[in-house]
Amino acid sequence: MKKILAVVLLLTTFINCTQDKVITDWPEVTKEAKPWTRWWWMGSDVDSVNLTYNLEEMGRAGIGGVEITPIYGVKARESHYIDYLTPKWMQMLAFTESEANRLGMAADMNMGTGWPFGGPDITMEDAATKAIFQQYELKGGQELKKSVQIKDDKQKEVAYLSKLIAYSSKGEKLDITDKVGSDGKLMWIAPAGDNCKLVALFIGKTFQQVKRAAPGGQGYVLNHFDADAVQRYLGKFDKAFTDNKVSFPHSFFNDSYEVYGGDWTPDLLDQFERRRGYKLQDYFPELLADGATDISARVICDYRETVGDMLRENFTQAWTTWAHSRNTTTKNQAHGSPANLLDLYAAVDIPECESFGITDFDIPYLRKDSIRKQNDGDPTTLKYASSAAHITGKKYTSSETFTWLTEHFRTSLSQCKPEIDQMFTSGVNHVYFHGSTYSPKDAAWPGWKFYASVDMSPTNSIWCDAPAFFSYITRIQSFLQEGTPDNDFLLYLPMYDIWKGQRGNYFTTFAIHGMRDRLPDFCGAVEQIMANGYDLDYISDRFIQTTTIENGLLKTVGGATYKALILPAAKLIPLETLTRIQKLAEQGATVIFAEQYPSDVPGLSNLEERRAKFSSVLKSFPVISSFDKVSVNALGKGKIITGNDYGKILLECHINKEMFVSELGGQLIRRKNVTGYHYFFTMLKNKRVDDWVTLGVDAESAMFFDPMTGQRGKAAIRKRNGKTEVYMQLQPGESIILKTFTNAKITTDNWDYYQQTGNQTELKDGWEMNFVESEPAIDETFKLQTLGSWTELDNDELKKNMGTARYTIKFNFKKSINQDYRLCLGDVRESARVCVNGKDAGTLFAVPFETNIGQLLINGENTLEIEVTNLPANRISDYDKRGVEWRIFQEINFVSITYKDVRFDTWNPVPSGLLGPVVIKELRKIQP
Known about the structure:
Blueprint: H1 2-24, E1 36-42, H2 48-61, E2 65-71, H3 87-102, E3 106-110, E4 118-119, E5 129-138, E6 160-168, E7 173-175, E8 196-205, E9 220-221, H4 227-243, E10 251-254, H5 268-276, H6 284-287, H7 294-324, E11 329-332, H8 341-346, E12 350-356, H9 379-392, E13 398-403, H10 413-425, E14 430-437, H11 466-480, E15 484-485, E16 489-492, H12 495-501, H13 515-518, H14 520-531, E17 536-539, H15 541-544, E18 548-550, E19 553-555, E20 561-562, E21 564-568, H16 575-586, E22 590-594, H17 607-618, E23 631-635, E24 638-643, H18 646-651, H19 659-662, E25 667-673, E26 676-682, E27 689-694, E28 701-705, E29 712-714, E30 717-720, E31 723-730, E32 735-741, E33 753-762, E34 767-775, E35 782-784, E36 802-813, E37 819-824, E38 827-829, E39 831-836, E40 839-844, E41 850-852, E42 860-869, H20 873-882, E43 913-916, E44 919-926
Parallel strand pairs: 1-2, 1-14, 2-3, 3-10, 10-11, 11-12, 12-13, 13-14, 16-17, 16-21, 21-22, 22-24
Antiparallel strand pairs: 4-9, 5-8, 6-7, 6-8, 15-25, 18-19, 19-20, 23-24, 25-26, 26-32, 27-31, 28-29, 28-32, 30-31, 33-44, 34-35, 34-36, 36-42, 37-41, 37-44, 38-43, 39-40, 39-42
Helix pairs in contact: 2-3, 4-7, 5-7, 10-11, 16-17
């Protein structure tokens, strides 16, 4: 019996230990958890040897996959170009897929070359299409002396008359298209005493060519609104893959929608009438009136909704359906589209957002370049993609990451980290760098380069320390790809108010550039809600219809749950949306109306009938005399909250705030998992955290995971006033992962907390510096009086080199018992590998450049070695000063961040090396 009990006890202990290990370990790393990169094939001038070389370099550094985008080629190598989708090109694709698989990677491909979709198979019939309106005045009893023919010389060979409508001064509308002869002569006389305005609609072409096209990919841009044209476009891929017996890629990609001026399609009038219930041609004058009147605004709104529907159905959904039938997936950037971005993002497998420029973070020692562009991809913009993924239950939100973060050759890993942290807190969990260019191993430096930064490739000096950065990303994404979203609120996207606010041309798009300027009220609401310590996802009218109630929570079609639905000062809402909101409230939902109730329906068809029904539904909501104060009223099983102040309104939801955001100004994202929740916290401002932080969720225990080092440990938590608090220590620029356990008490090593004792040692004297690697080569060993930029030393080669310098210092040290020590490098240009007494102490690539080294220090003499790598900026500047010809690319060749021809010979030397001060700070462990 004793033996049986012993065995049972042993098994129980083993099971408990195993369970603890499972829930307290880092998640398993998959290729999707690693960062991926857009891989430009210049001229598709690739070969098997160099494909292997490039993939192995990327795989070795920690890249999980590539996204192939063929573009224009390198000059004087035309004979090596491979035309897109030819048998040889398909052979190179198959080889790439095989090699990627061998390396534990995967390969996506752009479904075209350059962007947008198009190419040589796009006939004029299938090319992007535009409307051309011409107006004429005709007095009563007279005939038109002018011929009704297209005036634009460029359009004369392709444009045709679709409609000619006469609008009389008495309000009559007459289709007189059939009265126009083949020579353009109008065989029609205006009624006597009735002056008429004639509006002719010609359907023409944009003539837009694919941008940055690769060989075999040049041609017209596709008409994305035309269902038949889209199917014909997809058909050529079926033929290429089938004929060449090549497997479809991991995923197909579509870049941001940049179809300029393509505002029409041949069957648009028929589609409009079917969808909107009236003839658009009856309202051409209103369509062209820039929304100046209420009727004009309504007609324009209906037009915009129609083209958005056609884009979603005829292109985005059709493309995804096609991909699924071939056992692959779609990844799409919806921004730039003339449609509700949320619905387009939701129609694909992987919604992809984009950063463009750099954010001005107030973090000490964060390098700020004078050559910069403000980031257009702020959290309010990034959330369109992540919201779509969250509400539809999609695992991944990807991002085109670091586009034009800085000027070429001036991007540091330290600038990348806070930008990507902000993307993570905005819901991104599948990073694609922008990007990497295929470059042969023997290509002269700087190798083959895409015209837009940044450059994540082996020829960039930052590549040597990039594996540490890639590991950081991988650790974070391994968590953020687990579990389900846990944002607090659904925020209604007031699309019809947004459309009404876009005065001017009837055709409008939502490009990433200037989104904040175009949607100031909506963005302001997002920021107010988040600043109060809550998080949210956007929801559209379409997805409100499929949202249900479960245990008092709003549950979207993808299974995500939310505490309340917020309508941010929405004025125009479809009757169907208001009716659905009413039913949701009656079934138990909490609905918040900020600033006002909706007051009208959008669109023109059956307006008075819809208004009457709208008013009837609105009367079922509580009567509110003033929104100046917060009111809470019941509606069925749910409640309606109204008011002007988000801070006060949201308190009435009785949801715990995340104090890390509302009180400390940090950023975070929270997700649910099977044992509780997990957070990613980041402090992207000049604020140090060393205190108890109240969480928005309850927990019995919790663990910290450091994505920088891989360390983990049990966090100190306590209960105060019925809430869970965790003790957190974060410096400006730092980040941490927290995993909470709602009911389990975990058994694992404690997280180490430290406090500075005040004792510190600055390492000033005795530094030596020599170059481990340098171009041009520098053999000299430098004895340094003080630390500073190596460009300021007395050697002209140091002002123009790119490389890695080893800083060495020997120093005597006496360790105190039971104390740890933190090495602080101060200002580093740009990344550092640290070695203490011959043992690796880590790679520091971001602020703060600090690491604990207590276990590596010894009593007596110590040797500290710090290998610092600079940027390639000084070397490329020297190339331009000496006239080295490295801009060897076709088409746009190479431009600046402002898209102008640029030379770098006027750059001042960029500071390089270990600037310091280097300080060892004594720490003592504390128990909070």
